[in-house]
Every structure is written in C-alpha cells, then in structure tokens.
Amino acid sequence: MAVSPFFRSQKDRAPAGAAMSGPEAEHRVVQVIVEAIMDHRVAPGARLIERELAIASGASRSAIRNGLMRLAHAGLVELSPNKGASIAMCSPDEARQIFDARIVIETAAVKKLAGTIGEGELERLRAFVEDEREAYERGRMEDARHLSRRFHVLLAEMAGNDVLTGVIRDLINRQPLLSWSRPETEPRFCGNHAHSEIVEAIASRDGERAAHLNMEHLRALERELGAERAAAMQELRSAQAADGPDGNARQADESPVVD
Known about the structure:
By secondary structure, the chain is mostly helical. Helices cover 64% and strands 3% of the residues. The chain has 10 helices and 2 strands. Strand 1 (77-80) and strand 2 (84-87) form a beta hairpin. The two termini are 24 Å apart.
C-alpha cells in the first residue's frame, strides 16, 4: 500500500486514548486534512480514503463524516453521493474570485492597521518578515510557505477584526487548491520582498500605499499559481497517458469516504 499523505511518521498519528468521537475527534480530522492540503501532500481532486483518515486522526466514522462536512462548508472538500469525498478543485474563475475577495478584505485590514499600529507590533512584523526571509534562503520550503501565508493573517489579527481575520484565514487555506505544486518543489514566487515593503509602508502610516503594494503582491501570486496549475495539469495528462488504464490502481483498491 502506498504511504498515506495524511501522516509522515508515527508521531503524526492520534495520541493513544484520544476520543474517537465528538468535537475533539472532528477537530483532529479537520486538522489532518488541512495540514496535508497546506503542505501540498494531497492534490486537488484526490479522493479521501476513510481508513487513512481513521488511522491518522484516531476518529470514528461519524466523526470523520462530521469533520468532512465542516471542510465542505469551508470549500476545502467536495462531497458527492456517488463518489464520496475528495479534495476540492478550484476553477480559474473560482481562483479569481478568491483573490478578488482577499484584496477587498485585506485592503480594509491594512489601511486600518496603518493608522493604529504601535511600535511593539511593528517590531513583531519586521521580525516575522526576517524569519520568512531566512526560511526561504535556507531552503526550508515548508516553513517558508507557512510563514508567507501566515503574514497576511497576522496583518488582519493586528488590525483587530476577528471576523475579517477568520474570513482571510479560510480564503488562504484554499490557496493550495489553486496550484498542484509538490511539497519539495521550490516555489518560483517568493513574496518576502513585497511583505517587507508592505510593512515599511504601514510603518510610515501610509495605508493607501500599503494596500496598493498588497494588491500588486496578491495579483502576482494569483498569476504564479495559475501558471503552476497549468504546468501541473499538463504533467498530469502526460502521466495518465503513460500509465494507461491502470493509472488509478491505488484508488480503485481503496474504499473512499462515502455518504
């Protein structure tokens, strides 16, 4: 059996004695899948196998289904009566809508933050951007990707609007669905320089410039993810053509999560 994308080692499995049902178990299901998506260990369209989720989360069948319903509501999972559950796939139009929404929401957050930020928060932002830069320079791609996404959530948190922060976090969680790059792939797009410029604009109390820089940054990211997606789809078509009719053998041998 192929290695499951939902755990990389024994330590990734649920702790002994953990509840198999209820909110705690459902949260573990959500966490296992979200982490796999964010780390690019599972591709858009991939079917979710109940046995793998049960082993990784230590959750019962009902907890798994409830967790999947929460993820479906967030747009991360698709549920089908005939095909079961799978990682959601975003069309180019959905990708555009996601980035349009991010720009509108983050513009409001950045402008507010530029008018209210204190010296302590500014130092924290600068230190955060430096940690991000170091992660990219040292080739710690998983950490670098995480910090790049976390930067935008941090801005919203500092702006002091919990509702906007939650919406931004949900939109960012869908970002890996826009691209099919593998976890070991070194990203061609690095937003660290743009993040640094945004922070300095905020430090200058120039909310308009900070918002404009953030918009340009997000549009550049949107274009890069679109290019990655196109390249990955071409690679997938080539692999499927080479594999022939047996290319999906693993999924045919496993039981998907079904309604």
